Amino acid sequence: MSARSVAGEVFLLQLVVVVLLVAAAVVALVVQARSDAMLDARHRTLAAAGTFAESPGIVAALRSPNPSAVLQPSAQAARKIAGVDGINVYTLDGVTLTHSDPRQIGKRVVGPFSRAAAGKSFTETFKSSLGQSVVSVVPVKDAQDRVLAVVASPVTVSNVQSMVNRQLPVVIGTAALVLALSAGGTALVSRRLLRRTHGLGPVEMTRMYEHHDAVLHAVREGVLIIGGGGRLLLANDEARRLLELPADAEGRPVTELGLEEGIATSIASGRSATDELHTAADRLLAVNIRPTAPFGQAGTVVTLRDTTELRALSGRAEVAHERLKLLYDAGVRIGTTLDVERTARELAEVAVPRFADIASVDLLDPVLHGDEPPEPGTEMRRTAVVAAKNPHPLYPVGELIRFVPTSPMALGVVGERAVRVADLRSTRDWMAQNPARSQRMLDQGVHSVIAVPLRARGVLLGMAGFWRVEPSPAFEEEDVSFAEELTARAALSIDNARRFTREHTMAVTLQRSLLPRGVPDQSAVEVAHRYLPAQAGVGGDWFDVIPLPGARVALVVGDVVGHGLHAAATMGRLRTAMHNFSTLDLPAEELLSHLDELVAHIDTDEGSGEQEWQGLTGATCLCAVYDSVSGQVTAATAGHPGPAVVHPDGTVSFPEIPVSPPLGLGAGLPMETATLTLPEGAQLVLFTDGLLENRDRDVDAALAVLGAALSGPARTPEETCAAVIGAMLPSGQSDDIALLVARTRRLDPARIAEWEVRSDPAAVSPVRTACARRLAEWGLEDIAFTTELILSELITNAVRYGSQPIRVRLLYDRSLVCEVSDGSSTSPHLRRAEATDEGGRGLFLVAQFAERWGTRYTARGKIIWSEQALHAESAADGEDLGAALLAAWDDEAF
User: PPM-type phosphatase domain: from which residue to which, for each copy (predicted)?
Assistant: First the structure.
C-alpha cells in the first residue's frame, strides 16, 4: 500500500497513533510500577518492624540476661518471612541486640532513633552503600507503656524493584502484542479501503468523482445501476428523462416505478442483454444489461439508447446482416467434401430455413457422374431437397425431371438468369409440369419461388429452386441477387466435386487395371489377400504373387506414398518392373536392388524434364521368396514393415528383417536379407503400413493388436484375412491397406528325385536311365522321351563346360521341373548353330520341347532348369520332336 494512496495514508496515520498510545501506556505502567514498588517497600518494612515489636515474649527477652541469644533467631526467621533486608533490635542507647549480620551484635550505632525512643513509629528513605533504601523504626513498649528498645526494619529499594523488573517483560510483551494486533487490524482495514478506492490517492479520487459526475450527467445515454432485489441505486439525468422517473426513484424496486411491464421486467431480471428493443411511453429504447461483478457489488448496469428514429431502418439492417452471415456460413458449410450429391445437399441445408422454407437442387445427369456437362437442357435429376417441415410436396430425390418450357426452371435455363415468381397462385403456366402435384403444393401453402441456374466456368450444371410457404412473405426483387450470389458460390463447389469425381473414377479404373485380379495357380502356398482403398481415394499400395521355377513363389507387397492418379500409375510401374525382374530368377535382395536402381533412374529422368516431379522416394517394398522343397523363406525389405509368421500351433512372431532404405535411396548399396525355415502349414503375413496406422495407438500397440488377431487355432488364409481386417481396420482410414496371407506347403519328398553326376560324359547315360525309371514310377511315361532328351543336353553341357559338383534334380509338381546344377557361374546362351557347327544345338532343342527354361545363379554356381507339361499327347510329341530335329539342320548341312 503506497503512501500515495488514500488507504496508505490512513494506514500510516493509524499506525503512528497506535504506536504512540502503546508507548504511553508502557511508560505509564513502568512509572506506576516503580511508585508501587516504593510504596510496597515502606509498607513492608513498617509491617515487619511493627509485628516484631508487638510479638509476645519480646519484653521478657529484653529483660533476660542475654537478650541477643533469645531474639537473634527470631529476628532472622521473621526477616526471611517478611522479605526485608533485616529486623534489627537496638537498645535506647544504641547497642545492637539483633542484626542481619551477627558480627554487628553488641556494637553501638548512631541513628535517628529519638522519635522511636519517644514512643513514635516512623519510616524514612536514605542513601546507603547498597543504594537507595527504606527503613521503618517501631518502639518496643512494656505493659506500663515505657519504651524498652526500638526495632528497625530496612530494605533496599533495588530488591523490591527486582520483583517489578521480573514483571516488566510481560508488560512489554503485552504491549508488543497489542501493537501487532492493532497494526494488523489497521492493515486489514486499510487494505479493504485500498480495494474500495482501487489504490487511488486523494487527488485522483477527487478527480475521478468529478469526472464521474460530469460524465454521468452529461452523457446522452441513460445509465441505471440496479442492486440486489431489483432496486434502483443510481439513475443519471438522461435515464430519468427517457423513463420519466419520479424524484424519489432511487432506492425503490424497479417494478414499482410505473414503467411498462416489458422494460421493467427486463431491467429487474439481472440477466445480460444486448440491444434489446423495448417501448417506454412513445419511445423505442435499445437496452443493454451487463453484470457489475467482478468490478463492484452484485448487481447490473443498464444503458438506454433512444432508437426511435432508427426504428424504420432497423429491419433492413437486420436483414442485411443476416444475409451477410448466411453468405459467410455458406462459404464455410458448402463444399466440405468432394462429393457432388453431398455438396448439393449442403446448399439446400444452408438456405433452409434462413432464406427459404424449401430448397431443391437439380443437376444434369453427366454432372453426377463426373462428366463434362453437355449442351444446356431441361432434363435434370433431383439431387437434394430440404424442407423446414416434412413431408414436402416437391419431387423426391433421385427422380429424373423433364421441365416443361413454362416452368420457372426451364425459363431459367433458357434465359440463363434467375427467375422469380412472387405469387404462384396468380399464374397457372407453371402448373403444366404436373397439375396434381402443383395443386398439392398450393394446398400446402407454397406461394413463391426463385429458380437460379447453377453455372460454373460458363457451363450450366443444373438449377437451384428456393420456395416459400405460408406464412413466410413472398420473395422480393432484392432476394434474387442474394439467391444468385448464394448459388454462384455453391456452383463452384459442385463443379470442383464433379471434377474430383471424374479424376477419382479415372484413378480407380487405372488402379483396378493395375492390381492383380487374382493370384496365379501354384502349389507352394495357399494365398488369400485383401485390398482396402483409403477414404480419400485410391493409393499406391500393391501386392503380388509371382510363381518361380523350382516349386518356389515370390510374395511381394509395396507402398507408394500419396493418393490419386500419380500414386496409382507409379504403383503400376513398380509392379510391372517387379514382374519383369522376376523372370530373371534373381534372389529377393537382387530383385529389390534392381527395383531400387530403376526408381533412382526414374527420379533422375523425370526430374530433368520441364514439369515438376515429386519423385518416388516414398516407395517401399517387401519381397519374400518361399521354396516349397526346403521350406526356406528369403526376405528382403526396402523401407517396408517386415512380415508376421503364424506358426501351426497358433503362436505369432515378428522376425527381425534387416531394413534397407526406401526405393530410390539405396545409392547402389546391396540389400540385406534374412532367411527363415517355416514348417508346413505356417502362415506368412505381409501387409502395408496402412494396417498399423491409427491416431488412437502407436505402432507397438498396433503390432500387439495384430499379433492378437493372428494368434489362435488353425485357420485358412481367408479366415485369417477376415480376422485381421475385423480387428485392425481403423475408422476413417486415411491410407489404403494391402494384406497378403500365404500358408506354406511342402512338396512331397516322394516327388523329388536327385542324383550326383561325375564329370565324365559316360555318366550321362546312367543318370538318364535312372530318370526314366523315376518318371515311370510317377506315371509320366508320356513325356519320358522328351525329358530324357532335355536332361541329356543339360547334363552334357554341365559335364563339358561346368565344374563339380554336378547335380540333377526332378520336381514333380503341377509341371515337371528338371534342374541341372554345377559349380560354374558361366551363363549359357541360346543361339542358332551354323551349318558347319558340330554343336550348339542342345539349348535350342531344350527351348523347343520345354514350356519354359532358364538359369538361376546360386552362391556356389548356377542351376539350368526347364519346365514341361505333365501329360502331352504322344503323337504330337513325336511330330514335334521330329520336326525340331530336322529343323536343327538344313539341306546344305548334309
Answer: 522-744
CA distance linking residue 449 with residue 410, whole number of Å: 13
Find out whether 729 and 532 touch, Cβ atoms under 8 Å.
yes
Instruction: For residue 716, give the nearest of 686, 742, 679 by alpha carbon.
Output: 742
From CA 587, how far away is CA 654, in angstroms rounded?
A: 22
Q: Are strands 232-235 and 122-128 parallel, antiparallel or unpaired?
A: unpaired
Average pLDDT, the chain: 81
**DSSP state for residue 450 in the 8-state scheme:** E
C-alpha R_g of the chain: 59
For Cα atoms 184, 188, 189, give the angle at the middle one, nearest 5 degrees. Answer: 115
Contact 85, 144 (CB under 8 A): no
Amino acid 731 reads S
**What is the amino acid identity at position 724?**
V
**C-alpha 85 chain-centroid distance:** 90
Q: Are 844 and 880 in contact (CB under 8 A)?
A: no
- Determine contact, residues 514/507, Cβ cutoff 8 Å: no
Confidence of residue 878 (pLDDT cuts 50, 70, 90): very low
- The predicted-structure confidence for 820-829, as pLDDT tens digits, reads as follows 999 888 777 6
Distance of alpha carbon 412 from alpha carbon 425, whole angstroms = 19
285 by Cβ neighbours in 10 Å (0-12 / 13-18 / 19+) ranks as buried
Q: What is the pLDDT of residues 500-556, one digit of tens each?
A: 888 777 777 777 777 777 778 888 899 999 888 776 666 778 899 999 988 899 999
- The span from the CA of 525 to the CA of 746, in Å, is 9
The sign one gets for the Cα dihedral 556, 561, 563, 564 is: negative
